[in-house]
Amino acid sequence: MSFVNVDLLALARDANYFSTLSATNITAPAISLLSYHPDFQTVLGENATARKIADLPWEAFHEAGIYNKKDNSLYVTSNYQSLDDNINITVVSLDDYSITSTQFPDVWEANGGTSYYPPDADQSQTPPQQVYCDEGDFEHYSQLVAVDPNTNNSIILLTSFMGRNFSSINDARQHPVTGDLWFTDADYGYYQFFRPQPAQPKQVYRFEPKTGVVQVVADGFVEPNGLEFSPDLKTLYVTDTGAQQFSFNGTRPATIYAFDIQCDKTLTNRRTFAFSDIGFPDGIHCDTDGNVWAGAGDGVHVWNPEGILLGKIFVGETSNNFAFAPGKVFVFSNSRLWVVENVKAQGREVCKDFGVGCER
Ligand SMILES: *[C@@H]1O[C@H](CO)[C@@H](O)[C@H](O)[C@H]1NC(C)=O
Ligand SMILES: *[C@@H]1O[C@H](CO)[C@@H](O)[C@H](O)[C@H]1NC(C)=O
Ligand SMILES: *[C@@H]1O[C@H](CO)[C@@H](O)[C@H](O)[C@H]1NC(C)=O
Ligand SMILES: *[C@@H]1O[C@H](CO)[C@@H](O)[C@H](O)[C@H]1NC(C)=O
Ligand SMILES: *[C@@H]1O[C@H](CO)[C@@H](O)[C@H](O)[C@H]1NC(C)=O
Ligand SMILES: *[C@@H]1O[C@H](CO)[C@@H](O)[C@H](O)[C@H]1NC(C)=O
User: d(Cα 203, Cα 198) in Å, to the nearest integer?
Assistant: First the structure.
């Protein structure tokens, strides 16, 4: 597969230009690599190839995408289906790309998540646990739950802000130095009809699993969603998917905000980092060079640290998240799973999660 160059001046002058490209004028979802900047090919590597791995009759590939070394698998949460069944977790084997479903105790409606070292864990090993953002339902709290996928043991870490229920915890990251869990709380359980009416502002939180301290670090969002640290841990990126509520409304945010992180604990200097031209930027990850990648309305979009769009892994339908693996990027588009192989870029957390590529 070769890269398709998007002519920015043609795009600037003709709002219909994008749809005239043969790579984007498709009747069914299909993957291609669209360069908006010459650096896109440098970031992905000249030999990157992309293809579809799975096409299922239900939305198995939605969010998370957390690696577990013991079974060499990615754990991907499904999209919400019904209260008759907890949200399934789809296990994608990196050995042969085979797919199975599982569920964990005390995890009801899992959405985002992160690999997780419990307090005092040996950080020379790959993370022994996973944390899922459980959006909750009409009977269960929206909560953070730590799971060991190798034993199915679950430990509930946080069920409320000091007694005030969260709306729908959406996504989380563990700070690699402090071990704190930073997470967002949005309203999607309510918009998908499985949570009560929200009673909290839309905020970003920092939680210390060791001490129980929980603190609001940012507010003022319509729907805070994905979040990610820059590789130097000086910047936090937070996506606002406010454009999508019960329905899509393009006058609301589809925006990535950046903050400076102070003393590994608080945020300052909120600024607009990027806006998505289609859909909304949802799950977000950085590579080790500080480029910012997010699932959006037609695939995964990649911006450089200055917020310039470098390119898209285009699939022609919404991608809510994706996962880095060594030399690979797995793109989730709900019913479909795609892989880009021979990728030069390395995800910020690949060294930690896979225990390889640490020399970069
Ligand atoms: C898309 O492709 C079809 C079939 O080749 C063509 O008829 C149509 O004009 C194309 N649409 C655009 C916007 O270029
Ligand atoms: C791409 O593949 C060619 C041919 O196998 C090889 O010579 C080249 O080094 C590769 N480039 C990268 C960046 O790996
Ligand atoms: C979800 O998992 C449960 C239990 O593992 C299974 O019974 C159910 O069929 C799965 N749902 C889907 C849509 O695969
Ligand atoms: C908080 O959530 C729990 C679990 O769903 C529920 O029992 C409780 O009534 C909720 N509290 C409020 C004030 O809504
Ligand atoms: C964990 O739970 C899943 C789903 O119920 C089951 O298939 C699997 O065998 C369990 N694993 C362990 C180690 O108990
Ligand atoms: C879209 O959202 C804006 C801002 O919240 C609101 O004023 C407008 O009425 C909405 N439009 C539709 C069609 O719902």
Answer: 12
**Ligand 5, atom 6: closest residue by C-alpha:** 102
CA separation for the pair 156, 145 (Å, rounded): 4
- Tell me the average confidence (pLDDT) per consecutive run of 10 residues in the chain, 360 residues long: 93 97 96 98 97 97 98 98 95 98 98 97 95 98 98 98 98 98 98 97 98 98 98 98 98 98 98 98 98 98 98 98 98 98 98 92
pTM above 0.90, yes or no: yes
Would strands 3-5 and 32-35 be described as parallel, antiparallel, or unpaired?
Answer: parallel
> Which of ligand 1's atoms lies nearest the C-alpha of 19?
13
Closest Cα to atom 12 of ligand 3: 88
Give per-residue burial for 35-44: e unless 16+ CB within 10 Å, then b: bbbebbbebb
- Per DSSP bridges, beta strands 63-68 and 49-55 are unpaired
C-alpha 207 to ligand 4 mean position (Å): 20
Atom 2 of ligand 1: nearest residue by CA position: 25
Q: Measured from the CA of 344, which atom of ligand 2 is nearest?
A: 13
Is the CB of 25 within 6 Å of ligand 1? yes
Cβ neighbours for 272, distance < 8 A, ≥ 6 positions apart: 255, 256, 257, 258
Q: How far apart are CA 190 and CA 3, in angstroms?
A: 40
